[in-house]
Amino acid sequence: MTVIVTTEANREDSRWTFWLITAGISTTFGAAVPTGYNIGVINAPANFIKSWCNETIYETYGTVFTEGNLETFWSAVVSIFLIGGVIGSLGGAWVADKMGRKRSFLLCGFLLVVGGLCFQFCKAIGSVELLMIGRIVVGLAAGLTTSTVPMYLTELAPLELRGALGVFCSMGVTGGVVVGQVMSLEEVFGTDDHWQFALSFYVILVVTFFVPYHWLPESPKYLFVIRRRHDEAVNELKRVAGRKVRDEYVREQIDAMRRECTPENEEESVGDGERREEKAKERSIISVLKDRTLLLPLVLVCALQGGQQLSGINAVFFYSVSIFESVGLSSTDAKFANLGAGCLNLFVAFFSPILMAMFNRRFLALLSCSMCAIFLFCLTFIVYFIDDVEWFSYASIVAILLYILFYQIGLGPIPYFIGSELFEVGPRPAAMALGSLASWGCNFIVAMLFTTLQNAWGAFVFLPFTVTCVALTLLLKLYLPETRGKRISQIVPLVAKGFSSKPLVP
């Protein structure tokens, strides 16, 4: 295995360039922010939309919903977005390889615009079906976004900036949730007359930030390793790296991509040209699942993405409104306080690129998971005794805010891009798609079960999330290799032997 030493000259070439920044901003505001927007926008105007659905169904079909039927129908409207996310994630691998990383981004934007148009006109033409179509279409776009955009950005980024650029998608989703919450306030668009504008407002972002799409670079790694268009890959590499890039740096990048075509760490890379060719080409989800050398990194990616949802972040935001009300805030003030907690989440997210550049992934992930487990356990204890101890109401707020803080320094951003650092270009789309599938699937499970478990278990509803964070901490401590500042060719051998791997061996 060749050891790559990061020299001072390498760091000089690992700089923010015009096209790197443009790609980061365009994908973040054109796809990631709208994804988060559609998560955060639906809650505040829910009563108005449910009322409209009830009236429209009666006018169209002559059917009168009971309160229970209406709640069930509304659950379907909300959850169909998550189902779309699951389907979009599964399709992410095929789309990323067949259409390319850049065109995958274009497809995300197209689906988002179609969904926004459905939202805008569903009320005007009196169609509940159009509302549901819009929800599943933006869900498809969201699944594609989380499985392809982080991969696109990390493949564009030089080694030193891989983590900093990889968290842009996470930042966008986090910011989009807050923007969606703001736009759906009654003081903005969250009213009986204007809720359709709240649902479709994000289309302005999509259209605006897709303006530079035509000039955005395609992933050089995709062109070189998957499509074998070497000259085009070199041209794109030089364009992304900027005018001041050194020839030595370009040669190093080409050598690194060539190693992914013929991995040094694979036994079959010597004397078996046919298998080398297969390794370099795109890999189906089935072939990745059957490959024993990819078992451990696949478990890590799926555990991190699924654990991100099963850590209870959405449940904490859901429950925080009632906790804020318990300290004497009115219902309206509690919603604004909850929005403030979302803003804290976003504020910490803005520091993610700096954290990824300064600290190791293992350290941040372990710190985040372990501290989330501690504060979730504290929240369980505090909420259980909240009526018995006067100051526990305030302690619960502190526990929520600290949980959000530590979640966002590791468990929030790292799962989005860690697959791009654990997998070579060939199996990467399939691995990212499976990770995204785990994320949206676990999100769906939490959405479906949380209210029921909350009613049955009360304060103990946070214990499963606590156990998830503890289990994730143990898994990462034993098997997550450090990926910061390392080439893929250095990382792959560390996790190629399944659970017999020794990823902490330098």
Automatic annotation (TrEMBL):
The subcellular localization recorded is: Membrane
Please give the superkingdom of this protein's source.
Answer: Eukaryota
Q: Where are the transmembrane segments?
A: 73-96, 105-126, 132-153, 165-183, 195-216, 294-324, 336-356, 363-386, 392-418, 430-450, 456-480
Q: Does the keyword Cell membrane apply?
A: no
- Identify the Gene3D superfamilies for this entry: MFS general substrate transporter like domains (1.20.1250.20)
Domain named Major facilitator superfamily (MFS) profile: which ranges? 24-484
Q: Does the keyword Glycoprotein apply?
A: yes
Write the protein's name.
Major facilitator superfamily (MFS) profile domain-containing protein
